[in-house]
Amino acid sequence: MSAIEILGLEKTYSVGFWRKRPKRALHPLHFTVEEGEIFGFLGPNGAGKTTTLKLLMGLVFPTSGSARILGREWTDPSVKAQIGFLPEQPYFYDYLTAHELLEYYGQLSGVPAKQRKIRIDQVLQQVGLPDVQGLQLRKFSKGMLQRVGIGQAILHDPKLVFLDEPMSGLDPMGRREVRDLMEELKHEGKTVFFSTHILSDAEALCDRVAIIHKGELRGVGAVEDLTSSVQGKVEVIWQGAQVPAAIKALGAECHVTGDRVRVIIDENRQDAVIDILRRERQRLIAVIPVRTSLEAYFVEKLRRAETTAGSTA
Amino acid sequence: MRARIVHIASNTFREAVRDRVLYNLIAFVLLLSGAAILVGQISIEIEKLVVINLGLTAVSLFGVVIAIFIGIGLVSKEIEKRTLYTVLSRPVRRWEFIIGKFFGLAGTLVVNTFFMGIGVFAALFYVSHPFVRADALILVALYFIVLEFLIICSVALLFSSFSSPLLSAVFSFSLFVIGSFAEDLRNFARMAHGISRWLATGAAYLVPNFSAFNVISSIAHEQPVAGQLILQNTLYALFYAIMAMSGAVLIFERRDLK
Asked: Is residue A295 classed as helix, strand or coil in its secondary structure?
């Protein structure tokens, strides 16, 4: 069973005050997310990521299409007991303490009182906020609020967690912690669906990704598949301060950083470079096939989309 | 279902308390103590009349202001601050949210009125003691004021479910003012002719008839209130509040939370 099946969800808003005109925020969307995977929903700002999440959460209504979550209709109220959601840049009732907020959300999710107490302590520990649980949220920093947000999303032990830009506004340490937490959720067998425009996060975390641009799906696939298109080049790294003239003569692209030299060369010249390094008694560190990064794939997809749009116009 | 409504209501009440809404009681107590001392010195024989009139009018006005200004933000503030997203992504239905919010605000106003009622009785005791049997009628006036608040809460919530806080405040306050003159509007409708008669009659029955709830003056003169009026006002307030709440739910159930 798929965790999420999106079956042509589409959203068109009416904009304007007097003369309403349609504005399509999301073209019919089709893709599935499998159980137990971390799925990245990628796209630049304004691409339609948040609209998709709002549709799945029932916060906005689709113009057409439907979806299934955990095997049931996405509008089925019982589905919501098994999902957690962190909105983008969350803002919570700031007159509550972290403990009170989690207590409130636990009540709304129907977590029994006894279990609630245990879960709140566990979750506060998990998101690294056990010491400030008595502090009102109005005194929390942005990063702390994001942690509370993640806490409320996982409090009721959901099977599926939706996170909208979970790393946005976090410092490098905060981002690292959120990444660790997402991996932890995966190890617990949960499915994580998260939207982001930070591609390095997606590349490091996701099993599969979908790319959306201007409300249209541009590609879906496993990160490895999208990034494994070897370009017929290898990267050779060794310890040293300069590039031997013989290697330069092979037409290598050379970079020297500190005591490390990195050259990118055609695959069929790899042995020649290694022979030169042996002769020169250099210490070889690595030989790595060059892969397309997710960023390169992403940029290429968007560029192609722009070109198509331009030629159609 | 019931538990979720109770949790939303108690959180709304807690918000009002923590946002220091009940601090209005301090202003109320200061106003009433000042008035009691002043009328005790300058009016002869009518101290009681003045304190009851002033006290109950202040209870009503303080409550109306709170009902409108909290009521108009109940839904729109939650959308604007996106706190609603994390509530509605749980097994909470939209109508449960609206009903919970209504009860939370109504609860705040009942508690507020309870303390202000104590203030009225204390001021009354200061200018005229001991209490007499007719003073119990003040409780009826306070009950009518609470019924009035229920209507205002529901109306503010209705406006809040589709318009901005500023417009909601304007609509709710206008409705309160027009509703306070509902009897005059009905009299005007009786005298008018043609289309204006139809329009005035429609408006007179559409706006809440707050004049029926205003028994402050007759109670100050120790005139009894008919049991039938109590029943009639109770049913009217419940009917009006249920209608306004149904409207709020219908609108909110279909609204996109952008």
From this structure: helix
Q: Any idea what the CATH number is for the domain that residue A100 is in?
A: 3.40.50.300
Could you tell me if residue A263 is inside a domain?
yes
Quick one: average pLDDT of B19-41?
77
With 0-12 / 13-18 / 19 or more C-beta atoms within 10 angstroms meaning exposed / middle / buried, residue A41 is buried
Instruction: Write down the pLDDT at residue A311.
Output: 64
pTM, entire model: 0.84
Report yes or no on A188 lying in a domain.
yes
Nearest C-alpha in B relative to A55: B256
pLDDT of residue A258: 84
- Beta pairing, strands A83-86 & A233-239: unpaired
Q: Which of B11, B83, B256 sits opposite A60 (nearest CB)?
A: B256
User: A98-128 burial, b for 16+ CB within 10 Å, e for fewer?
Assistant: bbbbbbbbbbbbebeeeebeebbeebbebbb
Residues of B within an 8 Å Cβ radius of A:
3-4, 7-8, 11, 14-15, 18-19, 81-93, 254, 256-258
Average pLDDT for residues A4-29, to the nearest whole number? 88
A24, A127: one domain:
yes
Describe chain A by its helix, strand, coil percentages, rounded to 5: 40, 30, 30
Question: In Å, how far is A80's CA from the nearest CA of chain B?
Answer: 5
Q: Is residue A258 part of a domain?
A: yes
Q: Domain of A203?
A: 2-226
The total number of structural domains in chain A stands at 2
- The alpha carbon of residue B76 is apart from the nearest alpha carbon of chain A, in Å, by 14
A interface with B, Cβ–Cβ below 8 Å = 13, 54, 57-61, 77-78, 80-81, 83-87, 89-93, 95-96, 104-105, 107-110, 149, 152-153, 156, 162
Q: Are residues A119 and A154 in the same domain?
A: yes
Distance CA B4, CA A304 (A): 49
Q: Dump pLDDT digits (tens) for B67-92.
A: 898 888 888 888 888 899 999 999 99
Which of B7, B19, B90 lies closest to A95 in CB terms? B19
pLDDT in tens, A126-162: 888 878 878 898 888 888 888 899 999 999 999 999 9
CB contact under 8 A, B81 and A91: yes
Cα–Cα distance measured from residue A11 to residue A22, given in angstroms and rounded to the nearest whole number = 10
- What is the rounded average pLDDT of the residues B111-122? 91
Backbone angles phi, psi at A85, to 5 degrees: -140, 130
The pLDDT > 70 percentage for chain A reads: 97
Lowest mean pLDDT among A109-118, B43-52, B156-165: B43-52
CB A97 within 8 A of CB A68: no
Q: Residue A313: what pLDDT?
A: 54
Nearest to A87 among B86, B92, B256 (CB): B86
Residue A255 CB-half CA count within 13 A: 8
Task: For residue A310, give both structure tokens.
Answer: 């331009």
A87: nearest CB among B14, B15, B82:
B82
Which residues of chain B neighbour A86 with C-beta distances below 8 Å? 86
Most confident of A297-306, B24-33, B197-206: B197-206
B86·A104 Cβ contact <8 A: no
